[in-house]
Queue: 3 jobs
Job 1
Amino acid sequence: MRLLVRKKYFLHIFIFLLLCLYTVTVEMRPGRVYFVVQHLLFRQSLLALLQYLAVFGLTVGSVQVLLFNKSRLIRYLFLLALFPFLLVSLSYRFITGYNYWYADAQTALGNLSLAPEAISNFNLHIGLGLISCCLILLVFVVAARKSKGLYSPWLSLLLIPATLLSYWYINRSTGGTDDFPALYRVPLSTLLAAKHALPLGNRQEVTAAPLNSGARHIFMIVDESITGSALSLNGATMNTTPYLKANTNQIINFGIASSATNYSAGSNIALLSGLRLSDMPDKKRKALTAASIFQYAKQAGYTTYFIDAQLGRGMLQNYMSPQDLNYIDHFIQPSEEDPSLPYYQRDFVVADKLIQLSGSEEKVFVYVNKAGAHWPYARTYPPDSVFFRPVLAERSMLKDREKSLNTYFNAIRWTVDSFWQKLIPAISPTDRTVIIYTSDHGQDLSGDGISMAHASSQHTKPIEANVPLWLLDKSGFLGIKTQPTMHTRSHEQIFPTLLLLQGYDSTFVKTRFGNSLLDEVPNSRRYFYTGDIFGRGTSTKVPFKVTGF
Ligand SMILES: [Zn+2]
């Protein structure tokens, strides 16, 4: 008798583990287990990981009691409900290489009008999804039949807490972690994406007209995860930017600036739309409805370029919409043009393009999202460019502080210093090119690599918004004769500067968008935002101060 009980006990665990294995390999995105464990354990906390595992376990457990339910009606209702969700999930896997998730839900909902076209384009993939879905359901039916029902119909009520908790979890991570069985992930991510939907693609027209012809070539370079105070140019003790430090006189260095937010999307959309701190949290959706910098550039007669060195496949990020592309003449993703390009070479392809454009006869405006030093740092520089040791392995899970810092410093040496070493000598003063350079946010590497390095929403340190800011103006277009006061500026002054460079009236610019980098800025307190800039979750205004790395 005891043996029988024990055997049954093992059977439940065995089925549970089998279903977990099935969920992570078939229903979830490939590689997500690694990512989720790494992200939650090392960038958040052990508690965060346990919380996720508890919700994941509950959702798989609920699938188990539904599938092996003693009530045949419940079993078949479950399979019937699972069918459409599994079909969507697997079809996406055949189309994109991974199962449907929150970001896909957002894209799909934003482009519902294109659904018939998408279905006819991908009918082969959807067909494969359908066949796989039927095969899986067939295996489920056979297994459930053979077991002759293991669980009481009452246990199917587990569906309720599993739904509520996974909804809470996906909502709390604003879709970032929705790695649950398709039965939950597909409907709940879609529901939440609909709830979080933003009015993308409804920008106002530019009404102002430029007063003068502006600078001939304007390059706005937004680097990725570069902390201002980690640069020896700005006083860091580690020799991270030897070239820039020796060539300080070539640039107009504002030192350490504060970024608009401590995460990529928030800072970039603020830079693109001229959103100011006083507009945040942006409940009026100004960042999505005001004219973008590309629209102003087009109005001023520029040929516009958007170079995204981070993504491929024409994917858009940072709240940009397909309608924004209407004002972009050339949308370039280096990884798409050459899929074999190593990650650490992407910024150098960007540099080549900028050098080429700086010599062109036409007026050019370029907005660049550099690949920069986004985690994992080890992929952002060539293996033979290790200057600081010991370093982390490229897919390292354990991050001791010294290794994290060394790897990050190597990344800066390559992706910032070597990048500029290539760019500066190649830009001629006669090209009339003006470059503004900053980063989207900084990195907090003080927490042994266990805590989040940026985008934290609690106990956020100012270093997460600590970014470099300088100009390259070899032709002296801006007429800045002396080096500016260091460490007093913020992202907020970049949009007005770009408008002045494009030739817009300074009074219009100042009234509408505030001080530019050309204005003396009173040394007032600076702030930045954490959390969703649209105020859809918790968002906090955090005081900024300059700290060492
Ligand atoms: Zn970023």
Job 2
Amino acid sequence: MPRFLSLLDRVKEQLKGEKSGSGFTREGSLLILDASPLIVVGDLHGDLISLETILNEGRINERLKSGWKVVFLGDYADRGPDPLRVYGALFELKLAHPESVFLLKGNHEGMEVVKFLPHDLPWHVRNNYPDDHEEVYRSLLELHSLLPLAAVVDSWLLLMHGGVTLGMTRRTLSYPSQEELKLMLWSDPYEQAERTSVSPRGAGVRFGPEVSKEALKELGVKYLVRSHSAVPAGYRFNHQGMVLTVFSAKHVYALKKGAYLALEPFQRLESGIHLF
Ligand SMILES: [Mn+2]
């Protein structure tokens, strides 16, 4: 059996049993984290160079040993050259620090709600594991179904891949309908006054400042940190600073900068943005 498959099995076992641990609890698809020093990494899309840069420059291993938590915002595969090595590195990290490393679900881990393109993951799986490709791919899809959708960090942050929805509550984050899940994985913030409008992506919506304000108030947090939009500067604020986009797949998207966050509890978001 390929080593990758055994790592994958161990991560799935970990996720299946994940209910609570040091500084976190899990309710359905929602993680609730105590406020602690925190690294947040945006979309990776098979960009191993960006991931390695963040692991090194962010001193992730060292920080994990001293009480930091690390949250990845989803979209690990598709587009970039190294999705399986990105997964492999993330699995190693999760298994070494199961109560401090969290992999959230992106729209590229949501094939069951929306079929999307490009989806080159099956091609990489077939190339790397010609004898076991069906089993590896099926196992990756099972992993996707086990990933949490969002994390609420006590009275501070909401972390998720896409965005908030009308009428969002802790309950809809924990146990979303298929339609809510689709919106949460695919939506983007925009600055118009309308509450929502049609998204050019063909899935999800664009949500306005009032929708963000209501959702953050309902959840008792101050900011939404999300990824999903390949912003050229690596980060972008929307909605009077309430919404921060962080995007980490710099090389795959040929961005000017890639970004990640390294924050002490309740630190101003601006001062926790790290560019590479
Ligand atoms: Mn995405």
Job 3
Amino acid sequence: MPTAFPRLAAALALAGACAAPALALEIDLPKETATLHAASGAQNAAQCYMCHSVDYISSQPPMPAGFWEAEVKKMVQTYGAPITAEQIPLIVRYLDEAYPPQKK
Ligand code: HEC
């Protein structure tokens, strides 16, 4: 390979040859024990723990009506959760039933 920078090419080749092998680091994370509250449609909320634990849902205090809808939309619009527009009302219905909003 003709190159205008033979020293650079040699240095890069040498650097590549000397690169340390990636170390396999084992990290034992604690087992996930939290589960979604039982209620019909729980399977619809399966996407809700691809990014974070179910604890994010169950640790919320009782919130005003409309909270879960806003929350699911925030996960989609702000954080890019791959949840379709058709799935949103199914997930919201489940969350409203399983994690009921505050009674007035
Ligand atoms: C694409 C990744 C992703 C998915 C999927 C996702 N979330 Fe989140 N969620 C986040 C991030 C990021 C945060 C903010 C974390 C932080 O601030 O520590 C968050 C935070 C939360 C919180 C804490 C309150 C808040 O608003 O910060 C709740 C409740 C929550 N998510 C519920 C849900 C529900 C319900 C679903 C399913 C509809 C869901 N999440 C799916 C990324 C996601």
